[in-house]
Amino acid sequence: xxxxxxxxxxxxxxxxxxxxFQELAAEKSIDxxxxxxxxxxxxxxxxxxxxxxxxxxxxxxWEYSRVVSDFFDKINVxxxxxxxxxxxAAVWFSSEKEYLANLLxxxxxxxxxMRYMVEINYTSLEKYIxxxxxxxxxxxxxxxxxxxxxxxxxxxxCEWILGKVNASIGEISELYLNTVPDLLKxxxxx
Length: 190
Description:
Blueprint: E1 3-4, E2 7-8, H1 13-25, H2 35-42, H3 46-52, H4 56-74, H5 82-95, H6 97-105, H7 113-133, H8 140-161, H9 169-178, H10 182-188
Antiparallel strand pairs: 1-2
């Protein structure tokens, strides 16, 4: 049994498979990791893997979605604000730089991690805004603006992770905050 936090919690098969994948990714290029590697590493069968994920890219997206959801779920709980979300995201990206760099450098095309990041961030941002203001949908301009914000922040984050941008965690966090588009500020910074 695996313990997390102050209470006992049994990990799900998805969590164990994800942990196995991340453990392997610490030593091996993402594109070289096979489903068999993942399952052998944690004692599961490939059938168990395929009951939970369609492929390793689905696993990658699932894990990243969990991280992003955790950040969004904290907003407006006990005074946690958008600014803190952006700061915590920058800290997480920094702490996971090696793993994320492996994902960025060894996934391409339709399965590009950067593509997943943009889509997951956009979907989470849209969902948050809709829930926060009790709207049924964003306007076309709000959607394009939110997507542009996600494309920009993911792009600079990827460059930072890969060492193409030299900035501190605080500077990246400040950049995320200062580039919130005017059209979205009423939803995110109030």
